[in-house]
Design goal:
The chain is an alpha+beta fold. Helices cover 36% and strands 24% of the residues. The chain has five helices and five strands. A hairpin with a 5-residue loop joins strand 1 and strand 2. The chain is elongated, with a radius of gyration of 26 Å.
Length: 168
C-alpha cells in the first residue's frame, strides 16, 4: 500500500509538501499528524513518528510508528468549541469581567474597557488594586485572604473602582 491509499485529501497535500522538502534536502520534523481513512471508511487522526531510510544520499523509505490520536483530537475540538462559546459570552456580557494574575489584569472583556476607559494594552500594565477605590482595598484584601484559605472556588462581591477619569 502507498500512503495515498489511506491519506485524506488534506493529508495528501501535507504529505506531498513534506516530501518536496525532503527531496530538496531540507529537514522536516520526525513527528507529523495526518488524517487517514480506515478500512471501514472512517476518518481518524494519527501521529506518525518516522525515521527516513537513505540509499546513496536519497530517501528511499521510512520506518514509522503510528498512534491513533482520534480521541485526543476530538477532546481538543470540544475544548476549543467550549472556549469559543465562553469567550463569546464573556465578550458580550453586560458586566465587567477580567482575569487577574500576579497583580495585573491579563484579560479584560470589552465591558471592562468601556467602564474603566482604558485600552487593553494600558489596562494590562496597571496593578488591578490601583483601580479599586481606596476605601474598598481592605475589603478586597479580606476577600482574597478568605478565598486563599478556603476550598471555595468562587466568591462574588462588589467593590467600587475608579475609572480613567477618576470617577467611581
Amino acid at each position: 500500500m502507498s500512503p495515498f491509499d489511506i491519506l485524506t485529501d488534506e493529508s495528501k497535500a501535507h504529505f506531498m509538501g513534506r516530501m518536496t522538502k525532503i527531496f530538496a534536502g531540507e529537514k522536516v520534523p520526525q513527528t507529523v499528524e495526518y488524517t487517514i481513512r480506515t478500512k471501514d471508511d472512517r476518518t481518524i487522526w494519527v501521529i506518525l513518528n518516522h525515521k527516513l531510510i537513505y540509499d546513496k544520499g536519497f530517501p528511499k523509505g521510512a520506518k514509522a510508528v503510528v498512534h491513533n490520536i482520534t480521541e485526543r483530537k476530538l477532546a481538543e475540538q470540544a475544548l476549543q468549541k467550549s472556549q469559543e462559546r465562553y469567550r463569546f459570552l464573556v465578550d458580550n456580557a453586560n458586566d465587567a469581567i477580567f482575569v487577574a494574575q500576579d497583580g495585573l489584569i491579563k484579560f479584560p472583556n470589552p465591558k471592562t474597557l468601556q467602564i474603566l476607559g482604558y485600552s487593553e494594552e494600558e489596562l494590562t500594565r496597571i496593578p488591578y488594586t490601583d483601580l479599586v477605590h481606596p476605601d474598598d482595598r481592605s475589603i478586597l484584601s479580606k476577600f482574597r485572604e478568605k478565598r486563599d484559605g478556603s476550598k471555595e472556588l468562587t466568591t462574588t462581591y462588589s467593590i467600587r473602582v475608579i475609572n480613567r477619569a477618576g470617577e467611581e
